[in-house]
Amino acid sequence: MAGSKANHPPVVRLKGSKTISAKPGSTVGLSGIVKDPDGDRTSNKWWPYEEVDSYPGKIAIMNPGKLITSFKVPNDAQAGQTIHLILEVKDSGSPGLTRYQRVVVNVM
User: In what helix (H) or strand (E) does residue 87 lie, and over which residues does it extend?
Assistant: First the structure.
């Protein structure tokens, strides 16, 4: 069957909303679900998408290589600012494929 040996991208979903509201100093939980249709191993990484944030500081994600993790909204974040976080998932197939999901945190 043509294409049966092709690699397929991992399927990435977020548990919960893609948009979260949080106050400065609060801890925000992040959780993703990953399935690879080919059964390939996957690697996961959460990272701050600083280029689109309106919060100008740095964000520290607790366990960026885990599907379930968290981060603390910095105390100096201002109401109305946004923090964007990306869940990046790569599979071990050939060629390796990557998929992404984004969470937007609105500072209250």
Answer: strand 82-91
DSSP structure string for 40-76: --EEEEEEE-TTT-S--S---BSSTTSSEEEEEPPTT
Domains of the chain: 11-107 (2.60.40.10)
Q: Are 101 and 85 in contact (CB under 8 A)?
A: no
Largest CA distance in the chain: 57
pTM over 0.85: yes
Peptide bond into 56 cis (omega under 30): no
Rounded CA-CA distance 95/9 in Å is 10
CB 100 within 8 A of CB 86: yes
pLDDT tens-place values along the chain, 108 residues long: 445 689 999 999 999 999 999 999 999 999 999 999 999 999 999 999 999 999 999 999 999 999 999 999 999 999 999 999 999 999 999 999 999 999 999 999
